Amino acid sequence: MLLTRRSAISALSVAALATLAACGSDAGGSSSSSSSSTDSAAPATDLTGQIKGAGASSQGDAQDAWMNGFLAANSGASVEYAAEGSGAGREKFIAGAVDFAGSDSSMSEEELAKVDAVIEVPLYISPIAVAYNVPGFTGETHINMTPDTIAKVFSGTITKWNDAAIAADNEGAELPDLDIVVVHRSDESGTTKNFTKYLGKVAADVWTYEAEETWPIEGGQSGDGTSGMIATIKGAEGAIGYADASKVTDELGTVAVGANGSFSPYSAEAAAATLDASELSDKATDTQIVYDINYTAEGAYPIILVSYLIAHQKYDDADIAATVKGYLEYAASEEGQTAASEAAGSAPISDGLREKVLAAVGTIA
């Protein structure tokens, strides 16, 4: 588990560094802010709430960036975030142990029945990389795979890197006679749910499992959290797994995913194109902005993570309410999204989506 805490002291050091560097960056995040922001050296607001969050490990770097920017302008407040996984974050939120949650999947109907009115807003958009440890195929040297091939690899049907199905889409590549070692998440993970949902939608004849946060197949190797997944792939030659692309290092390679007759490596821009082509879910409301992903958009990278921040609409403590509201407003702001993109390689949300998100966050009281 990664626990990140920010308070007035760390915020002041960030503000001082920003002033010395004369970067001219913006900062916002007061409870009354909107999509516009104020200068990072502006006087601190009167927010004093001490708020706690927990959830998706994929959001870890983005949360760090949001905390730094928000607290530079709100030095009387404090924020902490425990990157324990999406499922753990939602459980703590429902139990009242934290004030907000980060989750790579939206709340289920069963979970929503256990809490009063909530908001769910997509503030972290990132490609899910299919990452592997195969010598000679790192960096920009991608191995191409169709959706069916990816499904067969992860279901255990394809077991060698030089299998005919992989070779057919990588003409001229010298694929090694190397066993494939499938790596999955050991914890309840929204990334797992997003990845298995993709497989079930695009390769239903091969992948016959439900989209779940728990990996559905026994055996193989596993890693706890995003960092554990990456460490396990690094440690086993021939390994393949799935992770938020921002965490994949240059030591590993990534699959160029097939769609509409072409193969696309991941990028924040290609992930954004997938979200732009997607529709709101049938269960979406003005305060629960959740998506059904379009996995066949032209020129897009189809395996993406739409990660949500989840908060109550009503809090018993007015200081907590104001600070949660201000923090989410900062995360949704243009500055907050840029900070997350620079820290984690995520795709900033569009202006149109930002307007919807800020309207939802505005209902917090």
From TrEMBL:
Source domain of life: Bacteria
Any GO molecular function: phosphate ion binding
Leader sequence residues: 1-21
Domain PBP stretches: 43-335
Coiled-coil intervals: none
Gene Ontology cellular component annotations, sorted alphabetically: ATP-binding cassette (ABC) transporter complex
UniProt-annotated stretches for the region Disordered: 28-60
UniProt entry keywords in alphabetical sequence: Phosphate transport, Signal, Transport
GO biological process, alphabetically ordered: phosphate ion transmembrane transport
InterPro entries referenced in this protein's UniProt entry, alphabetically: ABC_phos-bd_PstS, PBP_domain, Phosphate-bind_PstS
PROSITE patterns the UniProt entry points to: PROKAR_LIPOPROTEIN
Low complexity compositional bias, start-end: 28-48
PANTHER family, sorted: PHOSPHATE-BINDING PROTEIN PSTS
Family designation: Belongs to the PstS family.
NCBIfam families listed in its UniProt record: 3a0107s03 (TIGR00975)
Protein name per UniProt: Phosphate-binding protein
Gene: pstS
